[in-house]
Specification:
The termini are far apart. The chain has one domain. A hairpin with a 2-residue loop joins strand 2 and strand 3. The strands form two sheets. Strands 1-4-3-2-7-6-5 form a seven-stranded mixed sheet, with helices on both faces. It has a three-stranded antiparallel sheet with strand order 8-9-10, with no helix packed on it. It is 32% helix and 30% strand. The protein has four helices and ten strands. Pfam families: ComK.
């Protein structure tokens, strides 16, 4: 059972599995579910939490979307890289329009399985919890494929930086540094 949590500046982390909207008296809250199964309610909309987290990690939501567009193409509902930790990206994928109050955000790593239902699909989290979503399994498959492309691209870029660094040759060092 989720407990009430009134922190207005919740931060998405690598432990966050999903952000699920919760409508109470015409006000939208967010049910945050962690990989451990712990859940709590935040008095902000899911999109507001994603925007705040992007800003906290040194970017903006629009910049994250633009990076995804450069990698994947100009599609709707693109997943975003929210942050990274030692080369491992934290990728969030939206189920509906990212700015929609009813959109559910999932961590790319949090989707263990999914299957069709009469009203859309059910997503299974690593801890065994299930979340019903109002989209087809084709939509979820597409979102996972986009997230996989984004993850692969990010990991290739990080690998290139680790293996080659910012300076690619000794000759470049001589040109930029004064030699006595």
């Amino acid at each position: 059972m989720a407990k009430k949590y009134e922190n207005k500046s919740h931060l998405i982390s690598f432990e966050t599995a999903s952000l699920q909207p919760l409508v109470v008296n015409n006000k939208v809250y967010t049910k945050v579910i962690n990989f451990s199964g712990e859940s709590f309610i935040v008095s902000k909309k899911p999109y507001e939490i994603v925007r705040y987290s992007c800003a906290f990690y040194g970017s903006s939501f629009q910049h994250a979307v633009n990076l995804s567009r450069e990698t994947i193409g100009n599609y709707f509902k693109l997943p975003i890289v929210l942050a990274h930790d030692y080369g491992s990206p934290c990728i969030l994928l939206p189920i509906l329009s990212p700015k929609s109050d009813l959109n559910i955000w999932f961590s790319f790593q949090a989707i263990e399985a999914f299957y069709p239902t009469q009203k859309g699909s059910t997503i299974v989290l690593p801890n065994g919890d299930t979340i019903d979503v109002p989209v087809s399994t084709n939509t979820i498959s597409r979102q996972i494929a986009y997230s996989n492309i984004l993850s692969t691209h990010f990991l290739k870029r990080m690998s290139h930086l680790l293996n080659h660094g910012f300076i690619t040759s000794r000759h470049a060092v001589r040109k930029t540094l004064p030699i006595d």
